[in-house]
Amino acid sequence: MITGPTAGIGRSFAQALAARGHDLVLVSRDKQRLDELAEQLRAEHRVNVEVLPADLADRSALAVVEDRLGDTTRPVDLLVNNAGHGLRGRFLDNDVEAEQGLLDVLVTAVLRLSHAAARAMVARGSGSIINVSSVAGLLHRGTYSAAKAYVTSLTRWLDLSYRQQGVRAMALCPGFVRTEFHERMGVGRGSAPWWMWLDADRLVRDALCDLERGRSLSIPSKRYKVLSALARGTPTAFQARLQGLGR
């Protein structure tokens, strides 16, 4: 199951897994784009693709996805929690309901779907969860960073707690990726140097390799491994100064 599969990292996951012969369950708000992607994957890879339209910020719609994950007659072997969005403004510049919507998708949905998936996987003794987090979770940069810090921490704890019961969990922590994500926020490619932008397909290939290697944390590319190491050791006060410079 992949949430947010119609573009960017989620679409790359869908393409990569279908190419490996895996049947898919695709979850997104946009039914038209879901149907188009499903048809493409069925035609190209001869796999079964189930479409499940759902707004993950809507608790009743989220419950439908949770129920699907718990269906023992149609087990989900791998959950990719990828759906998400960002807010361009600073905390007090954003409407509180917009901030709540961000929390609902980035944290609440990941929590509940991970819980539903892990419960079913532990019961049968196998399964994997990839939660798409971000290197932003290593920084102090508003509610998006706070949400991703939660996702990374939760995921690594899940792996530590349930690995012995046959269930794997891995946090994928990319940086800037060439997708629709920043465009939807009204942020251009000039917001970061060219060398910081990653290719989504390569990112996903590396992430799946890291999952197979048994890693609980996947940070793509040497450049982001170095930047992540630096971020962990950077004092909060210095990070605040950098934010004042727009980075």
TrEMBL record:
<dbReference type="InterPro" id="IPR036291">
    <property type="entry name" value="NAD(P)-bd_dom_sf"/>
</dbReference>
<dbReference type="Pfam" id="PF00106">
    <property type="entry name" value="adh_short"/>
</dbReference>
<dbReference type="InterPro" id="IPR002347">
    <property type="entry name" value="SDR_fam"/>
</dbReference>
<protein>
    <submittedName>
        <fullName>Short-chain dehydrogenase/reductase SDR</fullName>
    </submittedName>
</protein>
<comment type="similarity">
    <text>Belongs to the short-chain dehydrogenases/reductases (SDR) family.</text>
</comment>
<dbReference type="GO" id="GO:0016020">
    <property type="term" value="C:membrane"/>
</dbReference>
<keyword id="KW-0560">Oxidoreductase</keyword>
<dbReference type="GO" id="GO:0016491">
    <property type="term" value="F:oxidoreductase activity"/>
</dbReference>
